[in-house]
Design goal:
With 148 residues, the protein is of the alpha+beta class. It has helices spanning 3-15, 35-42; strands at 65-72, 75-81, 89-96, 102-107, 113-116, 125-133, 136-137, 144-146. It is 14% helix and 32% strand.
Length: 148
């Protein structure tokens, strides 16, 4: 079948209301195929439209820093520096010996230390901190360890 006959058949089918179930993008009347053809029609078909207004991305908070882990009253006391402002959440992570890190404490205010009554002998406990601002998390702080 010639290209002209195929094109004519496609026009007839389109006029009859049949829908293509192919996942391969078809050429539009400009001869553009693939993603460019899909992008040109998406706004007209209810897709998102570029309004010219850039989205404002929230920057990740600066990485906090563990300052010290010291033995105190039979437990450990962890101190850190947040290194940023406007934080909505601070998480202090703890692991014992060669275990996995887990959230030990969560704060909604600007905490900078915690007396960890969960850190009891025997064992070595390690800590790291992560902060959140506007739903965006910082990198984890450095790790500091101590033995109660």
């Amino acid at each position: 079948m010639s290209k002209l006959a195929l094109l004519f058949a496609a026009v007839l089918l389109a006029g009859c209301g049949s829908e293509s179930t192919s996942t391969t993008p078809a050429a539009d009347d400009t001869g553009v195929t693939g993603d460019a053809a899909t992008d040109e029609t998406s706004a007209a078909e209810g897709g998102t439209e570029d309004t010219g207004t850039p989205e404002v991305a929230v920057a990740a908070p600066k990485t906090p820093q563990m300052v010290s882990v010291v033995k105190m009253a039979g437990n450990l006391h962890a101190t850190w520096k947040n290194n940023d402002t406007g934080l909505s959440k601070i998480e202090l992570f703890r692991k014992k010996d060669s275990g996995e890190y887990a959230v030990a404490y969560t704060y909604t205010k600007l905490a900078t230390s915690q007396h960890d009554v969960g850190a009891t002998a025997p064992g070595t406990f390690c800590y790291k901190v992560r902060t959140t601002r506007g739903g965006v998390q910082s990198e984890f702080s450095n790790e500091m360890c101590g033995t109660p």
